[in-house]
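Troubleshooting: if your tokenizer reports a length mismatch, compare your output against this known-good record of 275 residues.
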Amino acid sequence: MGDVAEGAETAGSGLGGFLRARRAAVAPERAGFTADGLRRVPGLRREEVAILAGVSADYYTRLEQGREQHPSPEVLQALGRALRLGPDEREHMFRLAKVALVIGSPPSLGVSAMLRGLLDQLAGSPALVLGHDLGVLARNELAEALHSDFTIRDNFARMCFLDEVGRRFYRDWSDIAVDVVGNLRFSLGLWPDSASLLALVDELRARSMDFDLLWNSQDVRVKRTMTKRFRHSRAGDLDVDYQSFDVRGVDGQQLVVIGAPAGSPTAARLAGLRT
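Known-good structure output:
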């Protein structure tokens, strides 16, 4: 029964698969259990999660196997605490369980003239608009120059996993890769029927073993602000501040602005790219 439930899960769905993956990621010591040598599975046992969440082991097992389809919000909150879930992971779990589920409106691929004009006004910083699948919908000239090393430029996920330049350009490639996968999984929770997103995930799983391994971890994250370290063939090493903003009134789009503190070496190198 459990095997059938697991096999029925698609690339982006499956509360049971998500719970199994997050359970395996929690070290027993962090949850107050002894990591003895008799454990047959990494992370917590099912009965340990059940104890932490205050539910029966049988009920939790049915959740993982897909035989229990209607957990209450209270149970999900308890599982979130037991599995040490962050805000993005907790929200994703609720979506998978279809509890207080808010499905986004169909994502738009069109960029308004006003937003394109704003990109041009941000001439001093690389700026671009990304879609729900991390596709590049628009960018200004400096963003074009910043990513000029890439052969693939249409989608950040493809740039990271399918373009050989990615591993050189992203000095912290493994961290970027985790963020990209977590972002795509979060988006799939919002738009589970998006044909372009499902096709992208299938393509990346088929063509990149690294992506497939990360996808199976069921990690979910959306970072709005971060520092990224690039290595550009002309500008050299860049330590940039990366900030993303949801585009109001347009589901699935985000404005990304990349910059550096005034007077820093990176700011000078980005200015050099403008010429």
